[in-house]
Amino acid sequence: MRHTSISPEPDTAASEQPLRAAWQWFFIGTLMLLVVAVATVFFLLSWLDRAGNADSNPSIPSEQLIDTLRRTGRPVQALYAVEAEALAAGWTPESFRLAGDLWREIGDHYTAAAYWERAALTLTDDLPLMRDLAQVYLDLGEYGSAADALTRLLTLEPELNDQNWAAYHLGLIRAAVSPPPLEMLELALREPAYAPIISPVLQALTAETPETSRALDVGIALVSGEQWAYAELAFEQAVADSDYGALALAYTGWARDMQGEDGGSEIRRAIVLAPDDARVRFVYGLHLRAAADNTGSLLAFEQAVALDPTSPAAYAELARAYAIIGDRSTAQYWFEAALVLSNNDPRYQALLDQFYAQEANLRASIGLDDAEVVPDITPEATPES
């Protein structure tokens, strides 16, 4: 008997159930998204209405809200409030100013400066605004923009302290530019705290030296006051000079070292340009010391002394290099040689006295008396490299 297999009919109702459930969830999701969208739009319209009618709605004062957010350490939220209000009512010089303040609090000084510049187009007599603009450009190292802001600040005839401050920074920015800003620097001298920095610069600018070396001399004067950023500006002015360009390039690199940057590229270029310049080798020694290459620094100072045996500064730095590597006897010899070569210059006497004091502390720490130390020591090292 022949049996025939019969295929069952497909269960249409069962196959339609998942599809029906998917459509149901699709409609539910769409409805929820629509509700969220409507709520968001309602919230934004409500916020814009409150922002645009803050004066007529004393229960929600926007200035008080922004002030509260700032005082509670929430400048980002305060900035959102400022931008929302500006979107509703339009930007004003005051809102640009406030937004700049908030960007500074957030830590973005570039954006702060951009907003303050917009405010300054209208608030031309706002002294604190001009002071903030000048300061932020100084902090950013934007010295061209800083000079413009400082110039505007001085034209406002502010209080004496602001005048001195602006003249000080503007004078140092332009110190190596011709003609020199003598009047500006003399104005800054009214503040006694600026005198130790300004006086050497004025001396360099008024000395009877070749005009071609003036920018380099100004940079060195600024180095003596540890004004590294302004010294770098001065050295950059001197780099193009054919006689002093290599040394100015080396000093530019060292000034960058002292600002936490790497000035090695400029210094190595200077050595290529002037391999026999003792002053370039001297600056190279300072650079290597800053990079913690004490052996390389010692070699560089030995080369500087060999190239110029008449430089007490090179002798003193060579002595310091020996002291750093622990060769105290040789260091003492070179400190004493620097003092003799300088004709007992008080600066080198102070270095030698400091070294003697360190030696006394070292001897005391290991239990030696002064009588046990023989000071007459002939070093093994010589100035020749």
Describe this structure in words.
It is a single chain. This protein has 19 helices and no strands. The protein has 385 residues and is mostly helical. The N and C termini lie far apart (118 Å). Mean pLDDT is 82; it is low at 1-10, 53-60 and 370-385. 36% of the residues are buried. The radius of gyration is 35 Å and the shape is elongated. Helix 5 runs antiparallel to helix 6, helix 11 runs antiparallel to helix 12 and helix 12 (228-238) runs antiparallel to helix 13. It has a domain at 276-385: Tetratricopeptide repeat domain (Serine Threonine Protein Phosphatase 5, Tetratricopeptide repeat), CATH 1.25.40.
What can be said about this structure in brief?
This protein is mostly helical and 385 residues long. It contains 19 helices and no strands.
The tally of helices reads 19
The CATH topology of the domain at 276-385, please? Answer: Serine Threonine Protein Phosphatase 5, Tetratricopeptide repeat
**Helix residue percentage:** over 70%
The oligomerization state is single chain
How many distinct beta strands?
A: 0
Approximate strand percentage: under 5%
| Average pLDDT reading | 82
Query: How many strands, what sense, and barrel or not for the largest sheet?
Result: none
Morphology: elongated
Rg, Cα atoms, Å: 35 Å
Please give the CATH architecture of the domain at 276-385.
Alpha Horseshoe
Distance between the termini: 118 Å
Q: Give the CATH H-level superfamily of the domain at 276-385.
A: Tetratricopeptide repeat domain
Stretches with pLDDT under 50, minimum 5 residues: 1-10, 53-60, 370-385
Instruction: Report the structural category.
Output: mainly alpha
Name the CATH class of the domain at 276-385: Mainly Alpha
The secondary-structure element order is: HHHHHHHHHHHHHHHHHHH
